[in-house]
Amino acid sequence: MIVLDRVTKKFGTLKAVDDVSYQIHKGEFFALLGPNGAGKTTIIKMLLGFIRPTSGSININGVPSSETRVRKNMGYIAERHMIPPYLSGFEYLHRHASLIGLSGKKARLEVERVVELVSMSGIEKKKSAGYSKGMKQRIVIAGALIGTPDLLILDEPVSGLDPMGIRDIRNIIDSLRRYEITIVLNSHLLSEVEKTCDTAAIMHNGKIVAKDSIDAIMAHGESLEDVFVKHVTQNTQY
Amino acid sequence: MKMVFKIARYTMVDQMRAKSFYLLIALSIGLLFLMRGCYSADYVINGQPVESIWHVSRVIFQVIVMGMLLMVSMISMRIFTRDQNDGSVQMFLSRPVNRREYVLGRIIGTWLISSGFMLLLHLTMVLMVWSHTGDINLGYIGASIVCSVNLLFIVAAVCLFSLFMPDFISALFAIGLLCAGFVSDGGYRLLNSEMIAILIPSISGSSPATWRVFYPKLFMVQAYADALISQNDFVTLGPVHPLINVLAYIVLLISLTVLVFNKKSI
Hints:
The structure holds two protein chains of two kinds. Chain A contains eight helices and ten strands. By secondary structure, chain A is α/β, with parallel strands linked by helices. Chain A has one domain (2-234): Rossmann fold (3-Layer(aba) Sandwich). Chain A has a six-stranded mixed β-sheet with strand order 6-7-8-3-9-10, sandwiched between helices. In chain A, strands 2-1-4-5 form a four-stranded antiparallel β-sheet, covered by helices on one side. In chain A, strand 4 and strand 5 form a beta hairpin. By secondary structure, chain B is mainly alpha-helical. Chain B contains twelve helices and two strands. In chain B, strands 1-2 form a two-stranded antiparallel sheet. In chain B, helix 3 runs antiparallel to helix 8 (167-191). Chain A binds chain B through residues 45, 48-51, 68-69, 71-72, 74-76, 78, 80-86, 92, 95-96, 98-101, 143-144, and chain B through 3, 6, 10, 14, 17-18, 85-88, 90-98, 265-266.
């Protein structure tokens, strides 16, 4: 379970995240929505321990997110899907396996498992510099899935992909439900969120302005986009 | 420490992937071969013929170190920027690796590969000297290891500066630090040399300014390495051995790098 308790993050005088409290339960597929600059990526980075809250706390299964050990069971897909260009997909994945303590045959088998999961078998040994955006994204997802994490953080996972790529990635993410992984998704693609997520929170100006299950959010027959626009406009001061 | 060595190994492996790495080794060794004529030339000092090969090899030894100091500053300046741009830093830090391990791994990896490179060049030179004289002076190997401390200093300094400054400026700044030390300590040694004592007795024997005593003693480390080769007595500047001085600076620089990197947003 992820618990955010009165989390505030300031950059100088700017409050990027303002007194946010929220709980994400085990196995939940949670979407973090909001316009640009709402504070979503800041929350994601705090979950990963990349930045620390100015005040408040973030605990993952009872352990502060700043502690290194929580990341042993965590997978992360960054907004910019990057693999060092000098590494092949296999080498990149092998490093992920090695960093969580797998070695030798165990590491190789785990890499083969995730490569198959993202349908990259046969091309994983090519240098990543020659991969398309979609292929890179598959490998990055495979990297995040090494060791079957309890928590998967997806920061704009389909950003920059074509519709076919988006569908492929959606199918891969959907297939993860069977592992009961908690997934935190940061996305602007509301149609994707509608199709895949269980719960969502809409952020604006660093605050959570709406939070509920996707079904409850859209209970009045409105699309997620309508609800999103309504909440963001209501909370914007001109 | 296991994670530090793992990251250090990745750093070395990644450096060795580049074809330019092998090209650089080949060019450097080629250059050493081109200089082999210097070993057999006839040198005369004050009308007396001298056994040139040992003197020349000591000079070439120091030239190799200087070249490596420049090269390592160029390699180190892009460690953090490159990792940020190609996603390596996210790859490491989204896994159970803390920032201290990441910084130490990158610094140690860069230092080990550059020290290995330098040792290879020094060994090549030792073999060339051996082919001329039939003698092997193991002092060169010890001296090479001593000089690798200077390489670590430059790696740590450039890494720290690159967290505040543009990459190239951070390398220049570290080289500037090195040059100031060379001028200061080199000048002091010269002024206190036997030759100057005879020529200008009023200058020699002066005590150094405090900042000179505590300034990073990179030049003195190389002078110490030279003393290991020539087996001459080594006279240092100030109460602390230059190796201890430089090692203390290295600890300080690495600690500051970890401290600053800990506060950096990824």
